[in-house]
# Entry
Amino acid sequence: MEGVRRSVQDTVPDVDKRTYDAVMGLVLRTTTRGHRVLHRVSGGRLGRRFPGGQRVVWITTLGRKSGTWRKSPLLSIREGDGADAPFVVTGSNAGQAKVPGWVFNARANPEGYVEIDGEHFRATFTEAVDADRDALYERLTSMWSAYATYEDHAGRYIPVFRVVVGDPVAASELPDRD
# Structure
């Protein structure tokens, strides 16, 4: 992984953390808003893949403070080849210093929902730790090379979660969410 990190890092100009967070925060908010609009107007048919082909899953977590359900689009990989293999997502927040809110929500309330290719399921969010987390993060980096620089830019530990898919849920049965 170190070789991957160096080669990608060499192409990224050095910027201070405040500037990086401001720019990436704007980029991430704009991208996420656009993705939400595209998802909403297409009824979830568009935006299932990120440019480059990476799968997008929409996780819905219960706010630990607000008690409000929050829906977040995240890049993901499958941990294995089987249909029951968990999805893997990360709280990289595009390399910003701030940990995304969904991470705190998943830690406090690991039961939620996931939307995959327009289908909804109950889900359990389980945080990977230690060598397990590192191996999964390396796999994520092989899928989206920018992950290699995110940890350095963020200056923090970037959490990785398994999304274990459960029973299907009709869209009409999902909780109201933000």
